[in-house]
Amino acid sequence: MSKRKLELVVLSDIHLGTYGCHAKELLNYLESIEPKILVLNGDIIDIWQFRKQYFPKSHLNVIKKIIDLSANGTEVYYITGNHDELLRKFSEFTMGNLKLVDKLILNLDGKKAWFFHGDVFDVSIQNAKFLAKLGGYGYDLLILLNRLLNFILKILGREKYSLSKKIKNSVKKAIKYINDFEKVAAELAIDKGFNYVICGHIHQPKIKRKVNEKGTCLYLNSGDWIENLTALEYNYSRWHLVYYQNLSLESVEVKEPKIDVLAAVTFASK
Length: 270
Known about the structure:
- There is one protein chain.
- By secondary structure, this protein is an alpha/beta fold.
- 31% of the residues lie in helices and 27% in strands.
């Protein structure tokens, strides 16, 4: 399998060490690419829900693959999130091509890109961390139940169903939270003069142009590897939102010369 050479790849919310993590699928994806820069935008290792009795080989293989990429020349930036916040005491640590940071600014073809996880906007985490952690355990349980449901649906020849997406889409407060998150992130980026703002945290993959009276920026969210299995790819001055499990490839024109969109790739689980 030939590897796709990419300028930049962004992953977030992998949650290694939890039952919901799709580590095998992520490893397949990582084996298929050769990025110059890999940005891990928070919640990569889920320290909140870490269990000594649960850290399977597939999860270790993802870590090994990231280290291998770093050793082979890929610049790897690990941006800390709320689930791996304990690593923030080691911020600015560097080992070869691997750098641990709390936020990141890159110049991409003359445009300024601002990367951060996004938990700073989450009031529930800032003011009630215990409840936020409790909610994390509930989410993990919901994912386990969802896997059981989808196993039964597969036997019956039915399509997969996402319980968490159904809940999020039916709860007005959840929809408002997501919209507010995107709005605040974009407005801050515009105020600071960034062309791109790239977040994780809310498990909602998206590429969307944001405009207000002060200007415009491109808001991007890399999604997660629990439900959506998504990554952001940047190549030839264009962004793409790639879904692992189907042929969906979204891209947004950013006023650079038009280049043919990369062919979408379907990855089969090993």
